[in-house]
């Protein structure tokens, strides 16, 4: 009996020793207002690297916003993508109480827009132009970090 227990324990240790560790930090924009907002994305060309933020050709997902402003996973929401001159310049309309996933960072810790990322990732955001009614807010790459809130390991801009 002890021999089987020891064998099972060693197998358990070996499995976890050789299992790769992987995690993802997502980036979201949450519209907590009662009106829809439009976000205009301007991104850098990322043809020679892996971008942090999704281009107009990539799949974006939207969720109902939870009470903290993060995504309520499992509750997909609608959004409207408006293509402009190219996949690096596009608009997305986000409905009230909705969270839009705008990017992801795999197996690295996000600290700053100007950090060196592993796995060939790079910060490809130039600016976000956010329109809510008559109000316009522009977030340039060097201002991005000051607008982030960390929620459950993900990064959210709450509007």
Task: Tag the structure with descriptive keywords.
single chain; 159 residues; mainly beta; five-stranded antiparallel sheet; 1 helix; 13 strands; 47% strand
Radius of gyration: 19 Å
The first-to-last residue Cα distance is 60 Å
Q: Count the helices. How many? A: 1
Shape: globular
Sequence of secondary-structure elements: HEEEEEEEEEEEEE
Structural class: mainly beta
Q: What is the count of β-strands?
A: 13
Largest sheet: 6 strands, mixed
Model description:
With 159 residues, the chain is mostly beta strands. It is built from 1 helix and 13 strands; from the N terminus they run H-E-E-E-E-E-E-E-E-E-E-E-E-E. Strands 5-4-8-1-13-12 form a 6-stranded mixed β-sheet, with no helix packed on it. About 10% of the residues have low confidence.
How would you summarize the topology of this molecule?
Blueprint: H1 2-18, E1 24-31, E2 37-43, E3 50-51, E4 62-65, E5 71-76, E6 79-86, E7 89-94, E8 98-106, E9 121-122, E10 125-132, E11 135-140, E12 149-151, E13 154-158
